[in-house]
């Protein structure tokens, strides 16, 4: 997770949160305390900050409000497409809602999200899962609620209020898959391609602080049930397999290690949630069957999946 958090980000998100805080009667000094963000930096649209600086502003907000989710959702409602710069403009110019979703997940590090957002399909439904980062409870609660609210705002802004979203859990919502085929009113293939190119270039600029490993890990976390290959990852990052291998080797890892690490982390998270049977988790992670998944999980942790789920008191995992 640390690599993902190393991506620098625009000051816009902090501006949105500070505006909310000021409207609620808080002072600028209270909101920016300890963040090393001055008034001048806050007002400069070209300012880029670190994740730790933004997280400090969030903590300052949470110190002054009891209702974490209420505040988070109110702030998340302010994250319209225009707040995301090139990324948001690229969504608006995409041909369909499905194309916009693909672009959104591909360049997620260019947003303000702290959750690990992944997409999968269940029968006729599309499901977005907002994986919880390893933060203290109130901070985690805030970023999950904010990111979910912001995602809903984007969907409604792109397709109108008729786009139906149903929250199925505290960190998951679903929608009818056929809505992804709907054409976007501001679709422009030339502009969409230009935005994608510029998003890719911006990712490369920010990679210097996070490294290829972080970008590949982010890609793997958003690959759904289809087990990604080195070839697919290289194509996704717009580089040759040889170049990708070389970058990863320079950082002391290989593609297989990253894939195993992501699958292990996702398996532990899903088992701890206790809402899915082992066979469902195996399918979600791209394993051929529950037995193959169980063998892999025991190799990773030394324990069977049923034991891992059971130690947290999850009794509904079959």
From TrEMBL:
Output the Gene3D superfamilies linked to this UniProt entry. Answer: Homeodomain-like (1.10.10.60)
Q: Which organism is it from?
A: Marinobacter aromaticivorans
Looking up PROSITE patterns in the UniProt record yields: HTH_ARAC_FAMILY_2 (PS01124)
Its recorded name reads AraC family transcriptional regulator ligand-binding domain-containing protein
List, for all copies, the residue spans of the domain called HTH araC/xylS-type. 214-311
Q: Name one Pfam family in it.
A: Arabinose_bd
What UniProt keywords apply to this chain's record, in alphabetical order? DNA-binding, Transcription, Transcription regulation
